[in-house]
Predict the structure.
Amino acid sequence: MTSGVRAAAALGLVVLAGCTPAGVTTDPPRASSQALLSESPWRPDSAAESGIVTNVVDGDTLDVQGVGRIRVIGIDTPERGECGFESATQAMSVLVLGRQVSLLPGATEDADRYGRLLRYVDVGSTDAGLSLIEDGWAIARYDSRDGYGRHPRESAYVRAD
C-alpha cells in the first residue's frame, strides 16, 4: 500500500473517530519515506542493531526482541487518551509489528530518561518514523528546534512535517 493510500485510509478512519491527526491534509501525497531516506546524509553502518518487533506500545515506542524498548528518534505521536493515539499506534504496528527492523543510533544520548533506547527504526529501506510523519500520525519533534540537539535525519523529517 502506498503512503498516499495509507494516509487517505487513515484520514477516513480518523474522521469517523471525530479527530484529525497532526499534519493530515488533502494536499497531494508527499515524497515517500524511501525517497527522503535516500537523501539523508546518514547511512547505516556495522554498528546497527536489528531484531523482531514484538510489541508496539504507541506510535513512537516499541519493543524489539533481544534489544529492549525503543523510542523512535525525532518524532512525536499522540499519547494514550489523546486524539489519534489508536491510529498512530495502528500505523506503526502495520509497519513494524512482527517484522525484522534495523535500529540505528543518531541522537545525542543513547537512551531517554525512561531508559528507552533512542534509535531510528528502518524496515528494509523504509524509515518508520518518517513514514508516520508523512502519513500525518507523527510530527517532527525532539530535535535541535526543541533543544535536544540536531539528529542526522532532522532535515528530512522537518521537510516532511
About this structure: The first strand starts at residue 49 and ends at 58.
